[in-house]
Amino acid sequence: MSALLSIRDLSVDFALGSWLDIGARRQLNILTGISLDLAPGETLAIVGESGSGKTTLARAILGLQRTSGGTIRFEGAPLAAPSDFARVRRRTAMMFQDAVSSLSPRMAVGEAVTEPFAIHREPLTDRRQTARDLLAEVGLRPETASRFPHELSGGQARRVGVARALALRPALVIADEPTAGLDVSVQAEILNLMAELKDRLSLSYLIITHNLALVRHVADRIAVLYLGRLVETGPSETIFARPAHPYTKSLIAAEPIPDPRRRRADLAIKGEIPSILRRPSGCVFHTRCPIAQNRCRTEAPALRRGDPTHEFRCHFADI
Amino acid sequence: MTGPVLQIDGLTLDYAVPGGRLHALRNVSLSIKKGEVLGIAGESGCGKSTLAAAMIGLTGANARRVAGTIQIDGQDMEALTEDDRRRLRGRKIAMVFQDPMTAFNPVLTIGAQLTDFQHNIDGVSRAEKRARAEAMLSRVGLADPGLIMGRYPHELSGGMRQRAAIAAALLLQPEVLIADEPTTALDVTMEAQIIHLFRELRDDYDGAMVIVTHHLGVIAELCDRVAIMYAGEVVEEGPVDAIYHRARHPYTRALMACDPAMIVARTARLPTIGGALPDLRAPPPGCAFAPRCPLVTGRCRTDAPPDVQLTPGHRALCHEVRP
Fold it and tell me: Which residues in B have their CB inside 8 Å of a CB on A?
């Protein structure tokens, strides 16, 4: 199986301080040792708390963030030169977290959904008809084309975001928190729409989210990020049934259960994700880990495998 | 057990909007007893935040109370002057907002603000007020409260700011604490910790709490009773166990069914409700949920649904339910 997207040992550093400190600028490591594959037609969810590096990873894939090590291959070819990223951006689409503010307030919906054609200089014979077709595809009425973003509900704006993402028939859609801020019934509608379009247009999705309840239903595979390190990856059934890493376990346990008969008595995880400026030594999770031992403070855990599809980094996880 | 600390009767409230009046709350009645935690749940636009704002007397200038009363400890907030209302806030009723960044003044330290919030207390020195503020910060689980006192709101993380906001709300030991989406802006691990904090606080704080949220998981974890709102009405109210396990109103059932957290097995297609909220500028004469309801009959479209008492403490606004 050839991967649509293949990331090997990716790292991203941010420069700290002002550009005036030439030569003396410190590098702050954001992502290290990220290796991931995404097969055609697959949905991969990247899960983690704020500050875990999820969005930086998506930006690096699209060439919006300079990488400092490792390789990214898209449809078999490596991405290095700026022209390579132009190709990726033609074949991928991004759905942004805040659907309303990702649309220009002065551009009517019909124009916004067909704008990708202009950006990528793709031929477009009948702009109005294309706009109507794209809107119909996401379940919006043709008259929505003349509306402006402020006239849309959250769910409608989200649908416009999907229509715009699909305009150029991408191979990969990167969705950053696709249902953040939506009510549960609208959230289900958007997820059903994304699932239906995925089958019809054989799309792959990279979904960035912290909503585990959603991930369970949409993702084929899950990658868990913590402070810029991948701590566990595997098929979603495995991750939910037999999570290996203590961080994954506590994320699953932290999700409130909508059943008053199953109230939790104690806390699965305490404290907050440390600042990336003070990333802990050894295993990055040791400061919050319920099973941490001395070794975790000094030695970064190597990759271990539960089975060929399930990988995690922990010294002491039992599988 | 004494009478209710907060009693709302037949509250009907409109907003002046372009094109008419938006009927945001329609005939809402609720009561909360001392020591009780009430959850108010519903989707965007159902009126839950308007109801929370009305409880503390903070609805906007375009709001108008058409009918009904809100009584805190037997006192109607509406009948008071704005000065008197302001004096009651904090002491009788206090509120925690979704985004604590907007609740604090960005140019004053947390300590200065928590001290100022106590300005209505007479006969207590400023040093004592600072000490109380510091003790409260420690009570809500902030390590090193002395240090936090000197910090500005932007220097704290979202979770720390929410803890500080809860400390601020509890400073004057209000009889009713309202929290509007208190965990929505937080990561799931911090959300779990804030839920845990609320649960600890309810043990040693004897006031009532109202938790307004669209997150059914938060209510299940925290509340004794829950009111489900739809299109400005409370459509079902009862003990959490009854609502989560024996919901009777078709809207409550539909809402529970489409929460992905309710569905344990992986599903390719999630249930949805279908249809849209009615236009609240002209609410339908019958049941507001009728156009989307699977049990709808002819009279649902024409007659307002009765408030049916199902079991003591459990009621639903529906033509099709029987006790």
Answer: 43-44, 157-160, 187-193, 195-196, 214-221, 223, 240-241, 244-245, 254-256, 258-263, 266-273
Cβ pair A272:B157 closer than 8 A: yes
Residues B82 and B123 in one domain: no
DSSP A219-252: -SEEEEEETTEEEEEEEHHHHHHS--SHHHHHHH
Task: Supply angle C-alpha A44, A279, A67, rounded to 5.
Answer: 50
Q: Is A49 helix (H, G, I), strand (E, B) or coil?
A: coil
- The residues facing B322 across adjacent strands are none
Cβ count near B119 (within 10 Å):
10
Q: Which residue of A has its CA nearest to B196?
A: A267
Residue A305 lies in a domain: yes
ipTM, interface predicted TM-score of the complex:
0.85
Q: Give B260→chain A minimum CA distance, Å.
A: 6
Residue range(s) defining the domain that contains residue B128: 99-173
Written as tens digits, the pLDDT of chain A (319 aa) is: 579 999 999 999 988 776 666 666 678 889 999 999 999 999 999 999 888 899 899 989 988 888 999 999 999 999 888 888 888 888 999 998 888 888 999 999 999 999 999 999 999 889 999 999 999 999 999 999 999 999 998 889 999 999 999 999 999 999 999 988 888 888 888 999 999 999 999 999 999 998 888 898 899 999 999 999 999 999 999 999 999 999 999 999 988 889 999 888 777 788 888 888 888 999 999 999 999 999 999 999 999 998 999 999 999 998 7
Name the residue in chain B with its Cα closest to that of A212: B261
Contact: B272, A216; criterion CB under 8 Å: no
Count of structural domains, chain A: 1
Q: Rounded CA gap, B197 and B187, in Å?
A: 15
Regarding whether B296 and B187 lie in a shared domain, the answer is: yes
Structural domain including A270 reads: 220-319
pTM of the full predicted structure? 0.89
